Amino acid sequence: MNKTELIEKIAAGAGLSKADSKKALDATVEAIKAALAAGDKVQLVGFGTFAVAERPAREGINPATKQKITIAAKKVAKFKAGAELADAVK
Fold first, then answer.
1. Which of 59, 55, 52, 60 is nearest to 35 (CA)?
2. What number is the average pLDDT over the span 43-71?
3. Which of 18, 62, 68, 77 lies 20 to 30 Å from 35, alpha-carbon distance?
4. What is the pLDDT averaged over residues 5-30?
């Protein structure tokens, strides 16, 4: 499912116009991004939790030259499905 199809599902399920559904989806995604950028976690009961995790620096190998390289530490977004979502997927 892509963003357009998701907007159509939201519009049908909530009785909203597609334009209002797009605004709602965009606002939700932006709120989640802003919370993660601030270092907060977003917990949606029954759906799951979005959080920021830190990956430490590590050594890797350049596949083209076989030389060792250092991969810098970075922050990544993680999602852990809630129990209801996990059960629905089974």
1. 52
2. 95
3. 18
4. 96
Alpha helix ranges (H) inside 15-62: 18-37
> Which residue reads 């209002």 in tokens?
20
Kindly report the pTM of this predicted structure.
0.80
Count CB neighbours of 49 within 10 A: 14
Give the pLDDT score at 35: 97
Burial environment of residue 60 by CB neighbours within 10 A (0 to 12, 13 to 18, 19 or more): exposed
How many whole angstroms separate alpha carbon 10 and alpha carbon 82?
Answer: 20
Task: Say what the pLDDT of residue 49 is.
Answer: 97
**Closest by alpha carbon to 78, among 28, 43, 31, 45?**
43
CA nearest neighbour of 51 among 28, 29, 35: 35
